[in-house]
Amino acid sequence: MNQVAIFGASGCGRGVMPLARRQWADSDEPHNLVFVDDNPKASQCNGHSILTYSEWLGLPAKRRYINIAIAHGRVREALVARCAADGVVFFDIRAANVVQLDEVQIGEGSILCPFVTLTSNIRIGRHFHANLYSYVEHDCVIGDFVTFAPGVKCNGNVVIDDHAYIGAGAVIKQGQPGQPLVIGRDAVVGMGAVVTRNVPPGATVAGNPARPLSK
Ligand SMILES: CC(C)(COP(=O)(O)OP(=O)(O)OC[C@H]1O[C@@H](n2cnc3c(N)ncnc32)[C@H](O)[C@@H]1OP(=O)(O)O)[C@@H](O)C(=O)NCCC(=O)NCCS
């Protein structure tokens, strides 16, 4: 049978497991759906076994499929490399009520949670997470391993570089055609921020209007 896993049994993984369960219920092939976690706190969660990665690799499998449900983009990338080296295939998770309009390209391994909307002419990289109620408006370009917490409002003509993390309820102002608003690589946008200008790579910004966080 196929072995299918959600990597991560914490909040993110437990939130997406029911979505994966529904998707795989439609599959004709027999499968076994479990959590994989490097530090399991229990052996079971919400009706699914929790295995370490090596235990999971030890199960007999026709094929192995996994989705990395870890919010931190850098951690997600490291786990992707580990799984890819073992020949594991990445599957997408998409809630049944996601809205996707015209000409949207999205890389492998994404998670699109309930009430996510992607409008038209959007390009998104690998292992994107869009949590509950987030949207991406027209003409945005989003890199690899980008994470949207719940309720992110990403307006049109925005570029978000690899590994950026956008906190819950952040609002990102639209850019202009040919002059996008740019959120740099590894930037962090705090929950509730109103982003009106470019955010430099690696910066953490918060507030309205969003400014670099001073500690
Ligand atoms: C911005 C963020 C990354 C900063 O985290 P941090 O570096 O640990 O910062 P701290 O919690 O130590 O806070 C530092 C200061 O910034 C303030 N601050 C933190 N986050 C803020 C935010 N989103 N907006 C405004 N101010 C914020 C704190 O009140 C604190 O101010 P003080 O020094 O005057 O007390 C974090 O607070 C955040 O917003 N993360 C996103 C959370 C989220 O969306 N979770 C979704 C889970 S699904």
Taking the sheet with the most strands, its summary is: 8 strands, mixed
- How many extended strands? 25
Q: What general outline do the C-alpha atoms trace?
A: elongated
The mean pLDDT is 97
Could you list the spans in which at least 5 consecutive residues all have pLDDT below 50? none
- The structural domain count equals 2
The CATH topology of the largest domain comes to UDP N-Acetylglucosamine Acyltransferase, domain 1
Helix content: 10-25%
CATH class bucket of the largest domain: Mainly Beta
Tell me the quaternary state. single chain
Bound molecules: coenzyme A
The helix/strand class is alpha/beta
The strand line-up of the biggest sheet is: 7-10-13-16-19-22-24-25
Along the chain, the helix and strand elements come as: EHEEEHEHEEEEEEEEEEEEEEEEEEEE
Global Rg: 18 Å
By CATH, the architecture of the largest domain is named 3 Solenoid
The end-to-end distance, rounded to whole angstroms, is 52 Å
Describe the protein's architecture and organization.
The chain is α/β, with parallel strands linked by helices. It has two domains: 2-91, Rossmann fold; 94-208, Hexapeptide repeat proteins (UDP N-Acetylglucosamine Acyltransferase, domain 1, 3 Solenoid), CATH 2.160.10. The protein has three helices and 25 strands. It has helices at 11-25, 53-58, 73-85; strands at residues 2-7, 31-36, 44-45, 48-51, 64-68, 89-90, 93-94, 99-100, 104-106, 111-112, 117-118, 122-124, 129-130, 135-136, 141-142, 147-148, 153-154, 158-160, 165-166, 171-172, 181-183, 188-189, 194-195, 204-206, 211-212. The chain has an eight-stranded mixed sheet. A hairpin with a 4-residue loop joins strand 24 and strand 25. The longest helix has 15 residues, at 11-25. The protein is elongated, with a radius of gyration of 18 Å. The termini are far apart. The chain binds coenzyme A. Coenzyme A (COA) is lined by residues 131, 149-150, 167-168, 188, 190-192, 204, 206-207, 213, 215.
